[in-house]
């Protein structure tokens, strides 16, 4: 780097000087041009005057020239004398002889003679200016002609140019003064402007960056920066910087905490501590146990989806009440008058409180606003969100209904309320408006997009205010926390504390934290093991004709965000590239139909079935099909058996908050053997870096990952799987719940009343 010159002028002064010199030169050039133009105008005016005078005098001079010299002088007499700027006139014969002259004109006889001679010689009028030792004069020698056009003599008209020169000098002085004034003012203004607009804010920015680097506490970046993007970008820079710092601190804490594995019992004891006598309430749209009608009889199912998978073990460990929409056909039949029942039905440990919604409410709130609006809004899967005012009204009303049910369950006792997911964004505020003393946390199970994406929702500010009713807002990833704070920053008037990842809105503080969700181990669930498991696997293989060769499996709700078409295409491409694997390898997709009242979801099932048929038709043999697409609801025992039997687990989400199937696959590999193919766009990819990470849109790479998984050396497969299993075991769902509850209840609850929403 070059050494800095000690005499370097400040930028504002340099810029001011540069602008001033350039503008000064421009004005001076314009002034010079103007002065010159006016001088030429004055001279033309003088020419005009001389010609007019010559014209007026032509007749008397013609008459006088017909007379002898002495008479001519007498006839013209005083007409030849000057007045004011006119010095005088003189008359000459065609032989150049002076006939008569005014007194003033006689003083310039020499000059006059020369000009008159030229006029006679060239036989035309001559106009000139001349400088003598002590004068500056204007001369017109005008030829006088007889009526038949013959030269008869010359009339000379002399004007004094002194006054013209005086005017020009005066103008120069005036222009000089104004140029000086303008240049000086400009210098002052540009220097001051540049200092105010650039030097000062940039110096502040530099100071702020220094503080950021050295870790001194500061609220936000300076706001008066000259370019708006500089403000946003510096804010983001600071956010990332702080996020990195806090992630580092969190990691350091996690290392200390990860001393051993969390279990159901350990969580139970921990929750008793956290609740301090209060009860635990969970509020979500999806219920953990649903009663459907099968052949006219109620049948119990556990709905597919990460939320239920994650939360049910927590409630089973801790007890409490789970408030959720009773959406099953036989749900009313199986609950008491208040919509309550003890679950799990075969070994009850907690209460499920079902909230009833009419068809219209469910359509507007759940299918409409939540799943046609918020779901595509938060998942960047190129599906256009739809927002309808009527859906929003249902969403507001439904959130109030769920909050009211939770308040009813809480009674007047202390309670900790864990609100779940994007269907419940307004519930935290509704809860706090009635009971500011409740500890309310919300966990957002799906991604939070960047502010540009989120702000297209017409009710984005209401959603943010709703969420900010919570004391703790959890996301899977730090990136989602950053996006959330960025969105709050851009969309509502709230005070952000990036150092502590907190938002203060009307006196209430919400903390924002990442809590990567997880699963419990399969051994704690009622799944088969040992010989029973082997028998079940054999049965499934026989039923679905899977006894030929090796197996990969995918387990998903049938949702366009899961990248199922991309997955099927990759399988097809794999068989194109590696035909030797025909009959040697089968891909099984378990697909639970989901949200089928929404046309996009219905069409997606049809699209997938057609694609699977097409691929099967291309590659199948008499006894083998490359893809087995098993559409239907598969219980936990079946899902576990498939995950256990498959060598390869495939998760290809186009965008996913976490994706628990990835973790369930790892957890199901009790034999430590198997390869996970995992989309880089699923949150799980941050933790399961030993998976084969793919971009689901890249079919070639995806197909290659299948080949790689099939051909991976056993030692490498085992090593990778071991590391992933350790990660999932140590960071299981009990640790997730313990961390969330500990964080939520660690600080005194912010009880300031909040404002009405929507
Ligand atoms: O990962 C959890 C999740 O995707 C939730 O966001 C969602 O509520 C659930 O699984 C499944 O969706 P649904 O409740 O609409 O069936």
Concise structural overview:
This protein folds into 3 domains: 12-166, PAS domain (Beta-Lactamase); 228-519 and 741-746, Rossmann fold (3-Layer(aba) Sandwich), CATH 3.40.50; 526-731, Glycogen Phosphorylase B (Rossmann fold, 3-Layer(aba) Sandwich), CATH 3.40.50. The chain is built from 23 helices and 24 strands. The longest helix is centred in the N-terminal third of the chain and has 55 residues, at 11-65.
Strand share of the residues? 15-25%
Cα separation of the termini: 58 Å
Helix content: 40-55%
Give the bound compounds.
6-O-phosphono-beta-D-fructofuranose
Order of adjacent strands in the largest pleated sheet? 11-12-10-7-13-14-15-18-17-16
**Secondary-structure content class:** alpha/beta
Strand element count:
24
CATH homologous superfamily placement of the largest domain: Glycogen Phosphorylase B
Q: How many distinct folded domains?
A: 3
Main beta-sheet annotation: 10 strands, mixed
Contiguous low-pLDDT stretches (5 residues minimum) are 1-6, 754-758
In the CATH hierarchy, the architecture of the largest domain is 3-Layer(aba) Sandwich
Over all CA atoms, what is the radius of gyration? 47 Å
